[in-house]
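Annotated sample (chain length 513).
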Amino acid sequence: MSKDTEIDMKDVELNEVDPEKQPMTGDGQAAAAEKNGSVKLKVPEDEVTFTGLSKEELMKVAGTPGWVRTRWVLLVLFWLGWVGMLAGAIAIIVQAPRCKPIPEMNWWNEGPLYQISDVKAFSEGLGGVEGKLDDISQLKVKGLVLGPLHTVQPDKPVTMDLQKIDPAQGTLEQLTAVLKKANNKGISVVLDLTPNYLGADPWFSSAHIDDALQQVKAAADYWLKLGVNGIKLSHFNLASNSSYWSQLQDDVQGNRTEDTKKRYLLMGTVEHKTASEVSQLLNTSGVDLILSDLLNNNSGANRIVDMDNLHSQQRSVGWGLGATQQDQLSKRAGTPALIRLYQLLLFTMPGTPVFTYGDEIGLQAQPQGEKHPEMVWDIEKEPSEGAAHNETSEAKRKDYADVRKWFKSLSDLRGKERALLHGDYYPLYSSASSLSFLRVWDQSERYITAVNWGAQKETLRLKLEPKEGVELPKTATVKLSTDPKLEADSTVSLDQIELEPGHGVLLQFPYTG
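Output written by the structure step:
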């Protein structure tokens, strides 16, 4: 074979390619698919759209008997459902228990009163009081009781001027500044106008009562116009029988407004009176608030009886331990644990708690013969690293800080909880050195106070006399406690509560209907 012929034969072989290896056209693909056992369908490029019924067709169908009945059935079901829900809502409202109306509360019922009997010991005079109002405001105090501040020499009536501030205490301008800042912080200011506060008899003598009371009346008018929110008189019962007493009442209470936050307070203190006598004074003297020394009686049974006698008049009753004599809690309570116990008791009793400056930190009272201790400030500031400090002083600072924290928690709680603010009171238990009571208001949380100020551990078995709508549960939750064995949020059986000596607990349980 010639060379040319060999080349031509190779060209023919190259052109004769296996059909399976040839690129597929449309027909070829179909054939291949058939050959491989599958069929490939060609989908039209134009999509089919659903047009639904026309208006004429819908109108024709809507008028048929079946659709007319269906529409009527749906309409009736809708209105029956609506009427049923309305009837259910009305039934719930009608059957729901009615909320008890809130009693009228004056500003002195809404929080503790804070006495500053010696402004020099408190903050180096009136000028320093203004700067301490921020600290006082943190305690949720509603009223500041200042003084007495007026000039008078002990047992010398002719030296008394109730409208003049003793220069050693401060100036009129400083008092005005205190009034302005206190008002801005929602704190009312009460001025103590006890005539002979430095002498033996607060009214000099029975022969001077009428004259002193006339001066008190004139001074009350002067100070109230200046912006003071009330006056306080120690041993007011000695003067309440005077013919001038009603005139003083008219001056303080005569122009009383409907706004309970702007009313003037006429406050008096009494000593060595029974609860029945305090109740009678409230009914006959017309004072707005009486602070007594009933808590000085150390018997739990007597304290429970006193609360029983006065709880119905709680919006006119002030409670304090040493406050009547303007003493600190520590003078009678002693240890930080007992101070916290009495703070718990005062904040949860039915009435207005009254404290003397320093009670919020457990300030130690002065030795006998020295009336007012100096206030301690900046107790929450820890000493800087490397700074020299006395271990005893540091321990005392921590005690003060702990007591203040406890005081604030109680004051906050009382301001929020209606049961503690103005709730009903029920005694549960009492002994020589312990007591317990229940505070209830309508559907709000209920609170039980239990305290043991004795030297021995005591088991309190709580029992409530049958009362309509009020029952004790089997257990309650610890809200606040000074007893290390009763931790917050733990559950306690009310059949028997064991309290360590010098400790107290506040328990909480819900309204269950």
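Annotation: Residues 1-39 have pLDDT under 50 and may be disordered.
Annotation: Residues 5 and 100 are 123 Å apart (CA to CA).
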